[in-house]
Amino acid sequence: MRSFLQRHWFLVGLVVLIPSAITAAQSGASSALIQTVDAVPTSYCTAAILFLMAVTLNSGRLFDSLRRPAPVFTACAVNQLAIPVLCLPLLALQKSADMKVGLLIAASVPCTMAAASVWTRRAGGNDAVSLLVTLITNGLCFVVTPAWMTLGATWFNTADTASQLQFSDLMLKLTLAALCPAIIGQCLRLSVHIRTYVDAHKTSFSNVAQAIILTLVFISAFRGGLKFGQDGMSNGVRHLEFAGVWLSVIGLHLSGMGIAWLSSGWLRFHDADRAACAIAGSQKTLPIGILVSQATGLPFSLLPILLYHASQLFIDTWIADRLNRRIAGTPKKPLAK
Fold first, then answer.
1. First-to-final CA distance of the chain
2. Alpha helix locations (H) across 159-238?
3. What is the band of 228 on the pLDDT scale with cuts at 50, 70, 90?
4. What's the confidence (pLDDT) of residue 64?
5. How is the chain split among helix, strand and coil, in percent rounded to 5?
6. What angle do CA 299, 162, 307 make, to 5 degrees?
7. Is 224 within 8 Å of 37 (Cβ atoms)?
8. What average pLDDT score do residues 298-320 get?
9. How far apart are CA 212 and CA 177, in angstroms?
10. Is residue 301 within 8 Å of 101, Cβ to Cβ?
11. Cβ-contact 223, 37 below 8 angstroms
């Protein structure tokens, strides 16, 4: 049991924290607990995660990924084009306006800002690729996400949120929470002493990053439980519809991962780059999904992105561990150009 917990402590944490947070929120959470959760600076937590990933990231690998950008572009194309396209026919299967617009939100938001690099590293993949995918997709989300939402409103009768998003505020938050920590982390690596220290404790830094992610998962699940409880989610959504949208987001995630893995193999990328493409290309971020959901005025539209985010954490933890064993036993090959 001790060995199991050492190897799978993060997965166990997810299993325990998500239902615990939702249960605590819906069973009459105390005002003190609500205030404590609200007081946690989630943007600072996200910044800390990205800083921990960036400061332990070999700068040479980052520049090498910039010189050979094919894996980055492949993952971005899957994340921002392939997954939204795959989502469109699934919209017709959703029975309510909330689930329909919520599914499109889940498909069109960018790659998650922190977890992609954590899971790529867990898989033994090229985390420089995942970091660049994170920065690029989040940098383009001010155009890409509203464009998909507008397309949905025009052709699939979903809610139009393009005119309601505050692009300048969103850009500032993403710059402070994602871009700045990555730059600071890489700048600190210019010091030989700091670089030597963090390289010697790389596993510890990654574990701290995963622990912070668990904190954010608990907070998101708790807030989701509060919102669903206030809006009558337990009585307002039928079990069949709930299961349908859950299967839809899992299908989108696995399809995106499969497309990225197969296409990167066809392009003859190294397995480390293929792992990064599969993970970063298929993951979606929760904070921007919540922001867009709030702009729709449809309270239940939050459900699909919450289910997508929670599902990808479980699925990718399992897949990353298996990719790690595959990559560890694969002879090194020249990187694809």
1. 45
2. 167-174, 180-188, 192-200, 202-230, 233-236
3. low
4. 75
5. 80, 0, 20
6. 40
7. no
8. 86
9. 14
10. yes
11. yes
DSSP state of 16: H
Reading the block at residue 11, the tokens are: 């997965």
Counting Cα atoms < 13 Å in the Cβ hemisphere of 264 gives 32
**Cut 0.90: pTM above it:** no
For 226-290, give the DSSP string.
HHHHHTTHHHHS-HHHHHHHHHHHHHHHHHHHHHHHHHHHHTT--HHHHHHHHHHHH---HHHHH
Dihedral class, residue 7 (left if φ above 0, else alpha if ψ from -120 to 50, else beta): alpha
Write the pLDDT tens digit of every residue in 211-224.
888 888 888 778 77
Residue that wins the pLDDT comparison between 35 and 177:
35
Q: What is the Cα Rg of the chain in Å?
A: 19
Q: What is the pLDDT of residue 239?
A: 66
How far from chain centre, in Å, is Cα 209?
14
| Residue 110 three-state SS | coil
Tokens at 227, concatenated: 């919102």
**Amino acid 335: pLDDT:** 45
Q: Using an 8 Å Cβ cutoff, are 175 and 113 in contact? A: no
pLDDT at residue 336 in the model: 46
